[in-house]
Amino acid sequence: MAKRIMVQGTMSGAGKSLLVTALCRIFLQDGLRVAPFKSQNMALNSFVTPDGLELGRAQAAQAEAAGLECDVRMNPVLLKPTGDTGSQLVVMGEVRGHYDAGEYFRMKRELVPVILSAYRSLAAENDVIVIEGAGSPAEINLREQDIVNMGLAGLVNAPVLLAGDIDRGGVFAQLYGTVALLRPEERARVIGTVINKFRGDVGLLRPGLRQLEELTGVPVLGVVPWLDADLDDEDSLAPRLEGKKTDRPLDIAVLRLPHLSNFTDFSPLEAHPALGVRYVRQREKLGRPDLIILPGTKNTMSDLLWLRRSGLDEAVIAAAAGGTPVLGVCGGYQMLGGRLSDPVGVEMKGSLPGLGLLPGSTVFTGEKTRVRRKAVCTAELMAGAAITGYEIHMGRTDAGGAGSFCRREDGSEDGAACGQVFGTYLHGLFDSGEAVEKLAEYLAARKGIRLPHVRVEPRIEYRNRQYDRLAEAVRRSLDMGKIYRAMEEFGDEAAAGGN
Prior knowledge:
Blueprint: E1 3-9, H1 16-29, E2 34-37, E3 40-42, E4 46-48, E5 54-56, H2 57-65, E6 77-81, E7 86-91, E8 94-100, H3 101-107, H4 112-123, E9 128-132, H5 150-156, E10 160-165, H6 171-181, H7 184-187, E11 190-198, H8 206-216, E12 220-225, E13 250-255, E14 260-261, E15 275-280, E16 291-294, E17 296-297, H9 300-310, H10 312-321, E18 326-329, H11 331-336, E19 339-342, E20 350-353, E21 361-377, E22 386-398, E23 406-408, E24 413-414, E25 416-418, E26 421-424, H12 433-447, H13 459-477, H14 480-489
Parallel strand pairs: 1-9, 1-10, 2-9, 3-6, 10-11, 11-12, 13-15, 13-16, 16-18, 18-26, 19-21
Antiparallel strand pairs: 4-5, 6-7, 7-8, 14-17, 19-20, 21-22, 21-23, 23-24, 25-26
Helix pairs in contact: 1-2, 1-13, 6-8
């Protein structure tokens, strides 16, 4: 069975995902077979495995860093929030149903056999498993039902690195308070703390590091600097989504919907020096962009109502009438049609008028589409560009006689194009550098701008360079020798006595 190391954090956003990604790359570089694992993830940013199952996007990226194709065993439980207190539950890549927070809390221990089966299957095939926690292990109100932090660490006998985020301030209190709230047997698993996202002179930290070690009895195994590695963010709280208008000549406005999902679709656009991407929540901030994008959403009908309350629906309709191109992706595509109907209550039973910018309509069904696609864009927006993407959606859309957005590898058509309004179900549509180049050329020509040709590398090439940069910085910052020794000292999973 594989050795293992677990990364937990003092809070959400402490940098656990990045550290796991870095460790996956480091172990790969060291010649080991390594796989990531997160027993339970809560995120709207998801991905599709080659066999048509769904997992968190962060685990797909970590698998890529480990030199693997993603596998649903890496994230056996995925929660996709549908509101403030409820989520769609995805177990081993398949939708199990919708649960409110209380229902899920009461039943989640039932998922332990599924989680352990997935973990042990991965562990039998690899030398190292890098496990990611969620939130904080100091959420003592949730301790008895924990299946993702110390509860999981005990089941698989994992040593734990505890990471705190110094960029937000209060990192010493974060780390000390977290360790203090752990049970003695949990504290014994913490082999070291890590201070993450540090800017400045490490020498100024040293007196505090010594005191922290004395207070907690746990060594500090590294101070990781603030890294400018550009990797896909796990959720829509990412700082990049707070962007303002840039000084680049072409302005792309993405509507920041309340249930925004798979926002990483648009990260590749920023690789082109002429394309500026910003996220908009208020009508008055929309301005006059060169392209408006309605992104994916976990709750299309709810977000369409929000769009109306905010007045952004009228702003988008007026912009389209004035000739501004509009692109809808997945849920955004569904909003652009004439009507959305939900006869069985997948989102909210009933029907709503759409924005009416495309002639089609959408009917929601209980079946979820999860599939990878290869296609060629047929729409003017980026005509001829090759696309390698994926679909994750509930519902079927009738294009209503509009032209297609793209032609799939099997000859079938996806999406719709009507004038300067476009829609597609394909996430990842800009991951090919060619697609970004074609879009920039199209928008520049509409604006009367001459652009020099810029090669935009495929996203996979770009991400691999970022994984190497991340691994190099983290390897320099962490005491990898102590991490390797701790993995050996914790021995086999069986020593935990879990089942």
